[in-house]
Amino acid sequence: MPRSKGPRSATTGGRAPVPRRRARLDVEERRAQLIEVALTIFSGRAYDDVSIDDIALAAGISKGLLYHYYASKRELYVAALESAAQRLLEETSTDTSVPPALRVHLGLNAYLDFVERHRVAFVALMRGGIGSDHDVSRILEQTRRTFVERIVEDLPRVVDVPMAPLSPLLLVALKGYIGFVEAASISWAEDSSVPKERMVELLASMLLNTLATTARSS
Amino acid sequence: MPRSKGPRSATTGGRAPVPRRRARLDVEERRAQLIEVALTIFSGRAYDDVSIDDIALAAGISKGLLYHYYASKRELYVAALESAAQRLLEETSTDTSVPPALRVHLGLNAYLDFVERHRVAFVALMRGGIGSDHDVSRILEQTRRTFVERIVEDLPRVVDVPMAPLSPLLLVALKGYIGFVEAASISWAEDSSVPKERMVELLASMLLNTLATTARSS
Fold it and tell me: pLDDT digits over A143-153, tens only?
């Protein structure tokens, strides 16, 4: 008997709008599917407002089966956050053949696109809504570090700003700049009366200001 | 019989290096004393590394008595944080008769003094180490808002920067600037190889940059 015709699993429940072949998803596919579902749900609602039942229902599986793949809501959230951070880094990555000023513009535009798509989750996460979690902190810090590294790698290509790269002051200032981008983006996500293009201009100007100020004071 | 000669309270324990008259402290005094103790302890160690026993021992009272004043470690932490935020705002407040540029310098210097004194607690708090707590978020947000309001109130006094005060762009940018100060301060608190005076210059320059950029793009 083909497995796709097997008896209706009790775990999928009567309401599940999901084809039965889902039951055959292997572990990796299932985890990827659950991360997608979690990303969609956590993007629109705060962590505390999402129950594991919501996620199981949306995924068309039982809570018990969900716990088989992720031991807790938090574990699934961390996996989804890791995936989201990876996407943010990919989406904001630009081709090194593009001139630096345009790369900054494209990268910031992609960053704000991302913020727009994950508005609620972004604000909640950045405000510490998910709470004390070393994994969450680690993912946030790693993402910030990658942004700083990208800027530093691009520095030799940024003309008209003489500087001593990698001075302690420059590194502190670039971390400050990432803080500027995050805080301004939170504010914008909560009340987006500023057009996105203006936000990109503001953030791009502030990056140049950061580099110029650091160069002057080095 | 004078109350100060009353029987030794079982709650103070044998080790308590505290005079027995402490037992007479009224509720308000006792809460203030506990906040002081909590501030000292939380300033040097991360929230998760401090136990309620540590605080009771340092305060020279029993854990039971401590719970009489604060229902939990978190409640005491929130009270201490509220007190710390109040002090930060007081210490960074400057006399309006002082010229704006000097006020900015003095205010930022006081801010970094505060960060230096509460290094561990500052980094842990800003990294979300205390976790998901609406009271903590509220205190942080209120403090940020007060800083933004102070800058906005001072704007008419800042010369050479024509601008449209209170435009949405300016407010987003000022929130971004507070994010810059916080993120740069976290980095500096973790590795203070940048002299404090350089930090003050950086943060002061970035404030002027923020105002100038916003004025240009308005």
Answer: 999 999 888 88
What secondary structure does DSSP assign to A27-88, as a single string?
A: HHHHHHHHHHHHHHHHHHS-GGG--HHHHHHHHTS-HHHHHHH-SSHHHHHHHHHHHHHHHH
Q: Does B184 touch chain A (CB under 8 A)?
A: yes
Q: What is the largest CA-CA distance in chain B?
A: 76
Q: Which positions of chain B have pLDDT values less than 70?
A: 1-25, 128-132, 157-165, 216-218
Out of B171, B183, B202, whose CB is closest to A178?
A: B183
Q: Is the Cβ of B124 closer than 8 Å to some Cβ of chain A?
A: no
With CA atoms as reference, the chain A residue closest to B215 would be A202
The answer to whether the beta carbons of residues A178 and A172 sit under 8 Å apart is no
Distances (CA, A) of B6 to A68, B23, B28, B147: 61, 10, 21, 49
Nearest in space to B110 (alpha carbons), one of B139, B140, B87: B87
Within 8 A by CB and 6+ apart from B80, the residues are: B35, B38, B39, B42
Residues in A closer than 8 angstroms to B216, CB to CB, are: 205
C-alpha A73/C-alpha B65 separation (Å) is 37
Closest Cα to residue A61, out of A38, A42, A79?
A: A38
Contact A129 B127 (CB under 8 A): no
Q: How far apart are CA B45 and CA B122, in angstroms?
A: 10
Token pair listed for A217: 């004071």
ipTM: 0.81
Q: Looking at chain A, how many residues does it have?
A: 218
Sign of the Cα pseudo-torsion (B10, B15, B18, B20, in order): positive
Tens digits of per-residue pLDDT, A92-129? Answer: 999 888 888 899 999 999 999 999 998 888 887 887 65
- Spatial separation of the C-alpha atoms in residues B95 and B104, rounded to whole Å: 11
Secondary structure of residue B95 in the 3-state scheme:
coil
The alpha carbons of chain A give a radius of gyration, in whole angstroms, of: 21
> Which tokens hold the place of A93?
């990555």
Mean residue pLDDT across chain B: 83
Nearest to A207 by CA among A87, A111, A127, A86: A111
Residue B139 CA to residue B85 CA, distance in Å, equals 7
Q: What is the separation of C-alpha A143 from the centre of its chain, rounded to a whole number of angstroms?
A: 9
Tokens of A50: 């999402």
